[in-house]
Amino acid sequence: MKIGDFSNSFAQLPERFFVRQAPAIVAQPELVIFNEKLAQELGLDIAAVGAAAIFAGNTLPAGADPIAMAYAGHQFGNFVPQLGDGRAILLGEVIDQTGTRRDIQLKGAGRTAFSRGGDGRAALGPVLREYLLSEAMHALGVPTTRALAAVTTGEMVFRDRALPGAVLTRIAASNIRVGTFQYFAARGDEDAIKTLADYVIERHYPALRDEANPYLALLAAVVDRQAALIAQWLNIGFIHGVMNTDNMTISGETIDFGPCAFMDAYDAGTVFSSIDQYGRYAYAQQPHIAQWNLTRLAETLLGLIDPDEKQSIARASEVLDGFAGRFEHYWLAGMRQKLGLLTTQDGDRALVLNLLKIMQENTVDFTLFFRQFSAADATPRGLFSNPEAFDQWAETWHERLRGEARDPAARAFAMRQVNPAFIPRNHLVEQTLAAAVDHADFQPFHDLLSVLQNPFEDQPARARYAAAPPPSDTAYRTFCGT
Ligand code: AMP
Ligand code: MG
Fold it and tell me: Which of 39, 180, 201, 392 has its CA 20 to 30 A from that of 187?
């Protein structure tokens, strides 16, 4: 069955880059959701009747060349030389309407050569969670993999209990990770690293072909995209939760929505993931971890950067040292926008840090603060347990605004374009998933998704979706158990 024009380039790479593997056939595929707008963007033509079978992996579309990709990775700092797609299968690639090559991948599509002890399956809850979170991130303007479809399989998967099984169809600029480079570096396979680097340059950074040192330029480009990405995460209160090197893309898209979650009350040390005992991937750690991961990438490229190892290390180090500055640049630019500042002034960093400090001391909801601060006719003052702390800070902000010519209504309007009213609030996500998993009630999922598709619009009838969670005795915890 033809759904589009496949153009599979990764599967043309040497055999050791992947293992050919068809998706498993499942008992009874049923479509939960299909992202028609994204399908159009991808130039796919999917008759609704066939959709469930295709997105479950039961019917292979014409032109697909399904593979499981090889990769390695540092998981919580420990190197694992072979991870790979253990429960994801890359169906193939299509060229979208803008001319960009995109991967179509089924997640939860059965065992592969990389499954190790795993069952290759995914449970419905995590599939819907990734659907919601990745589509919310996209609507928030953050580079991310997308969700094209979710189907239930009619089979159970066994985690701590029996759960309905599901498959997510995920779209990515590519699924090449820092860990993909590490896989070949761990095997001393310099030829493969060069082939992969050339492929990545061709696919993601074609302008670098003509650089004097394309591989050093590649490192610099990935450093820059990741710095921009992590800054965006921090600007909206996103915590990825499991920033292992196998979960960091070379394209600069957010990938692998496992235990990720949005922060409610501002706290730089926020950790949600139950397995992140030491806070390695805490909210404010993310830039440091990104740089650590990029250093692992740099190590794999040393042989390509310069034949002289010392030279190579010196040049790569210089690029890596630039990460902090790039991150700071993007992060501060984002914070300026959030605070409605047009110009750049020396004291801006301190202004932002002072605000974050009092937000943390007063357990102020991060999203609510910036949204209320963006309203021309309201004040976030009431969010502070000590409102005077806000008053004092607001004076410094007013003072700072004197140098700016923009009128308040225009400023407030601009601020509402960057400070969302709606994020996937943890308590709402959990309610939604529980309804779907425990009661096969998908309405709350569809309702929440629809709210999250327009995060910057006031949606008065849906105000409850913007609210902070009710006070709770227990900290919110997320789990990897996809
Ligand atoms: P993740 O924590 O999702 O980034 O996955 C880390 C590694 O574990 C990847 O190689 C996955 O393919 C593999 N993996 C995770 N869950 C499963 C599963 N249920 N079956 C097989 N492999 C899995
Ligand atoms: Mg992963």
Answer: 201
